[in-house]
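Sequence dictates fold. Next comes a concrete instance:
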Amino acid sequence: MNKPKGYEYCLGEYGPQLFDALCGEPVMWGFEITRRVGDEVWKELSGLGYLECSYPNWYLITKKLTREEAIEKYGKITDEKFGPKGGWKSITFGKKEFCSKVLK
C-alpha cells in the first residue's frame, strides 16, 4: 500500500504494526508516524484511519484483523474467555489464543 499523498514525510512503510500480546500475530496494519506533526496534520491523519499508540510510538492504522479473517486464517472459534464479572479476556481461533481488543 502506498503512503497517503502529502504525508510521505511523516509516515514509515506500510505493514503490520501492532501484534497480539499472547500469540504474537499481527492484528493491525498501517504506517508508523515517524515524526512530530502539528495539530492540523494530526487531525487530517485521523481522517485516513485510526491513530493508535503503542508507547512510545504512534501509528496510522488502516486495517484491523476481523474475527472473520481470523477464522479463515487460524480456524474456527474454539474458546472465548470472560472474567469473573463477565469482562472479555481472550478468544481462541483454532489453537491461537488472542487477547487483542480488536477481536472482542
The CA atoms of residues 23 and 96 lie 6 Å apart. Residues 39-46 form the longest helix (8 residues).
